[in-house]
Design brief:
Strand content: under 5%
Radius of gyration: 18 Å
Number of strands: 0
Shape: elongated
Number of domains: 1
Number of helices: 6
């Protein structure tokens, strides 16, 4: 279903977000995976306009602790990711409410 309904940008963003989830960490951290995850964090920082050097250090601390230590700097990235809407249902509900309020009779 996801391959059928998700756009290419949505798939790219989903693949980026998977890297910062603590359940995706592997026990043996290979050097190549470490570098590729930093590239992903850099892309996310660019996407959300966050300062990469500080977020990079916070991500390293988060990953070394296997997701138990979340610094305020890394929390900014996690909150930014959480703010991305999964669907447009909330917006459409708002438009419906406005249409009920701003009717031709009113």
């Amino acid at each position: 279903m996801t391959t059928r309904f998700m756009s290419a940008d949505d798939k790219k963003f989903r693949d980026l977000v998977v890297v910062v989830q603590s359940d995706s960490f592997q026990d043996p951290v290979a050097p190549n995976s470490r570098e590729s995850s930093l590239v992903v964090v850099h892309n996310l920082c660019t996407w959300f306009n966050l300062f990469f050097p500080v977020t990079k250090d916070a991500f390293r601390e988060f990953k070394e602790s296997k997701g138990t230590v979340v610094t305020p700097e890394f929390r900014k990235l996690l909150f930014a990711i959480d703010m991305v809407p999964v669907s447009t249902a909330a917006c459409e509900q708002g438009f419906s409410a406005v249409n009920d309020i701003c009717s031709p009779l009113r």
